[in-house]
């Protein structure tokens, strides 16, 4: 009998993601219409794929600079300036990463001393709290409320701050709620952040998918540039999830420290994907615009349809998720999602996997064809009738 | 003529699916069904929306016998009316699918459909090249259609994503 575990206590104690369990349930059924997919339904544009193929033909198969191709960092710098009015030097403030995921990882591992706290705003992307834990920090979760459209209020932020707080991790537009924070709201949060000398880690991976209000980067708020780490990437807006390419922009002191970690742990992001991303930034903005329009239509469609069938749904400003309330049915999110899957073969994600405050809701991704959405709605309407 | 954002959005949607349900179109654009009807009527009256067509891949149908040719036509324009008059003389033939005025080496691009190459050939020699203003014609027969009006004929891309993901 083995007495000692070969797995570290930190990892052993991590909870497996609730999404995984749901995937296992859904993957074993035939004829499922899925609203559970957290990625674009578009295939990466041909021009971008072609650029990657060309880079292979040309023999670009070696490492790049640790921070990524200089040309790509220059394009990212121009892109950030043009889209979000924030200026980062390609020389020492931008690192190309393996998705926003790795950007989050190296950010947290770079800034945290053991035992320091990061405020994590729930409901949120499932990786945040585990990433904080694995970086030796302590995630302090704040539960936003449906009554505030799942927006972090200044009072909530203030109340969560302790002497050990190092940073606040915020995602807007949000996964899973789709909520987008407005500029005025960012300003109020920024005042508190400045007062307590904290950092903001701003996950802006859905920045390109804002449908009603112009997206404002946290770094663009007065006085926030020097205390904001911007996480972004190509997965969502450019429909490039499988390429695994993201980037992080930060004040020089932090990005130089991050680069140390990145060069030891990763060397560099995949070269082929970097060439693809370069093409996407240079000539792909028209495609982004068309995809944004297409998601917006589907958002309008799904939100109106949910409300019509008795699923109360606030209209989310961005990303590609609707987060309707299922409280009326008297079921928990997990019950609702499991029964909907069993009875009608529609996959959604129970809201509580994104944090306690997601209970009573389900995440429905509308990154799916109109035909799929229509079919899902038909089945959900029947389900709601059978359970009212 | 200037269109507003709602009108443009309706056009963008129906351009790819003119059979879309009015209810769904209303939901997607956040307009009422009545407003959509008014908008469509207006666009039709202005002949911005000209006709609702179906893209058919006839090559899959055994009963279909037909050929398509693209003909480059050089003409002498007429004083006062330019190319419009000769274009009109050409597009009125029922065999003619499309007529475009072109920049470059020739003037009009004419697309003709017939039941056989012979039929197209006699149309060109008897009807088209005998017109007074026509100087010369070059006929290209289409061998295979891969993509037509933005639609790839052979495409059946399945969804390659995993069913549930973060
Ligand atoms: C909020 C959020 N952040 C980060 C990621 C990870 O993105 P990437 O593919 O760039 O690693 C996701 C993906 O679902 C996400 O939803």
Automatic annotation (TrEMBL), chain A:
Domain Aminotransferase class I/classII large: 31-379
Keyword tags: Aminotransferase, Pyridoxal phosphate, Transferase
Xref: InterPro entries: Aminotransferase_I/II_large, AspAT/PAT-like, NHTrfase_class1_PyrdxlP-BS, PyrdxlP-dep_Trfase, PyrdxlP-dep_Trfase_major, PyrdxlP-dep_Trfase_small
Obligatory cofactor(s): pyridoxal 5'-phosphate
Pfam families per record: Aminotran_1_2
EC number of this enzyme: 2.6.1.-
Coiled-coil ranges (or none): none
MF annotations from Gene Ontology: pyridoxal phosphate binding; transaminase activity
Keyword Endoplasmic reticulum: no
GO biological process: amino acid metabolic process
SUPFAM superfamilies with a match to the protein in the record: PLP-dependent transferases
Sequence similarity: Belongs to the class-I pyridoxal-phosphate-dependent aminotransferase family.
Protein name per the record: Aminotransferase
Organism: Peribacillus butanolivorans
UniProtKB/TrEMBL annotation, chain B:
Domain Transcription regulator AsnC/Lrp ligand binding span(s) in chain numbering: 72-144
InterPro entries documented for this protein: Dimeric_a/b-barrel, HTH-Siroheme_Decarb, Tscrpt_reg_AsnC-like, Tscrpt_reg_AsnC/Lrp_C, WH-like_DNA-bd_sf, WH_DNA-bd_sf
Highest rank taxon of the organism: Bacteria
SUPFAM superfamilies reported for this sequence: Dimeric alpha+beta barrel (SSF54909), Winged helix' DNA-binding domain (SSF46785)
SMART domains assigned: HTH_ASNC (SM00344)
Protein name (record): Lrp/AsnC family transcriptional regulator
Organism: Peribacillus butanolivorans
